[in-house]
Amino acid sequence: IKPSVDLTLYVLTDDVYLNEEKFWRVVEDCLKNGVTAFQYRAKGKKGAEMYREGLRLKELCAKYGVSFFVNDRLDLGIALNADGLHLGQEDLPLEVARKHFPGKIIGLSATNYEEGVLGIKAGADYLGLGPIFPTPTKEDAAPPCGVEVIQKLKEEFPNTSVIAIGGIDQEKVSEIIRAGADGIAVISAVFGAENPARAVYELRETIVKAKE
Amino acid sequence: IKPSVDLTLYVLTDDVYLNEEKFWRVVEDCLKNGVTAFQYRAKGKKGAEMYREGLRLKELCAKYGVSFFVNDRLDLGIALNADGLHLGQEDLPLEVARKHFPGKIIGLSATNYEEGVLGIKAGADYLGLGPIFPTPTKEDAAPPCGVEVIQKLKEEFPNTSVIAIGGIDQEKVSEIIRAGADGIAVISAVFGAENPARAVYELRETIVKAKE
Ligand code: NI
């Protein structure tokens, strides 16, 4: 039996936007204002630094009762005893990660309906689905799949969580949640916000209202 | 009790030199001509590709009775049930890797005497020590430590294997082995050779003679 996790407002770390001091301040802003899960991502960093930063984030999450995920690196997930692991389409195969990370939540990125179905059939506990809408600033992004895909996947596979990701701002949240998404995953909407604490608070409020 | 491994002629993979077809031909040349251990390295590749390539290399190594190591990625080492793991100074901490990879060989990179001693005290099974000699083509390399460091470390810590690495060619092998090194680790001396099979065969012969 897996621990129940709340993926309603899932924040992925990105330190591109901020210096280190500011980064950790925003993390605490997130934890105090309604984030329900964190995913530690650190593309291009070495293992020692990832371990140090991941440990710090995990301990902060534990303090606030927030779930802690690791992106891509199964070894970091194991070493930090994370609540779960998020895998991209080109990361280690899900069944391999599952074997060595039993009892944990494993999520998979999907950009469209077909990848979503394959991911669910491969045993993903949740999908990080996106982009849902066009993402004009991200040139390498997949084409947007639209909110209909959320609806379709949730109708066919009600037991798998679907978390929408990709260029989600305040205005799009209601539409996503009403389409049936279990939550939203954000990066720049928080780390790129002028007032991250307020941004988190408002995202959470909008989700709660849309779920009513 | 750990499996006994022979690190006499330790080849690190590098596919910068070769296309894929040629790469796998050289791997077989190595296995047939006296390589005793392989380390799978794939900087910048994604997990899925690393898993596929690593699995192929591991199976080839098993066929020839050659030890199989993974560089940096503890998760890949676990997933492939490798014989061991090689960690750089900035990778996951050795004690963390040890905890989740029991009974396996774990080696550590060291560029000088001090790093070597710290690595041995941290519990490394072997050191990848280097560069021993100046490496004019590699601008980011540490300063050469000289063969005296091999001698000193082996005198003080005879139970830890020392493998010399960094710009080692045929001519330097004898001096390194006579200084007490347990083996040599090579990349370009094999993958960059005009005739890799012959290069491997000659390196092995030189090592064997120097050890007599
Ligand atoms: Ni384990």
Write a structural description:
- Two copies of one chain form a homodimer.
- In chain A, helix 1 (about 20-30) links the parallel strand 1 (about 10) and strand 2 (about 35-40).
- Chain A has helices at about 20-30, 45-65, 75-80, 95-100, 115-120, 145-155, 170-180, 190, 195-210, and strands at about 10, 35-40, 65-70, 85, 105-110, 125-130, 160-165, 185.
- In chain A, strands 1-2-3-4-5-6-7-8 form an eight-stranded parallel beta barrel, surrounded by six helices.
- Chain A has one domain (about 10-210): TIM Barrel (Alpha-Beta Barrel).
- The first copy, chain A, is built from nine helices and eight strands.
- In chain A, about 50% of the residues are buried.
- With about 210 residues, chain A is of the alpha/beta class.
- Chain A is about 45% helix and about 15% strand.
- The model of chain A has no long low-confidence stretch (mean pLDDT about 95).
- The interface of A and B includes residues 93 and 96 of A.
Tell me briefly what this model is.
With 212 residues, chain A is of the alpha/beta class.
Output the keywords:
212 residues; homodimer; alpha/beta; 8-stranded parallel β-barrel
| Helix-strand topology string of chain A | EHEHEHEHEHEHEHEHH
- Most extensive interface: A-B, 24 and 24 residues
CATH architectural designation of chain A: Alpha-Beta Barrel
Quaternary structure type: homodimer
Counted by DSSP, the helix tally of chain A is 9
Q: What structural class should be given to the helix and strand makeup of chain A?
A: alpha/beta
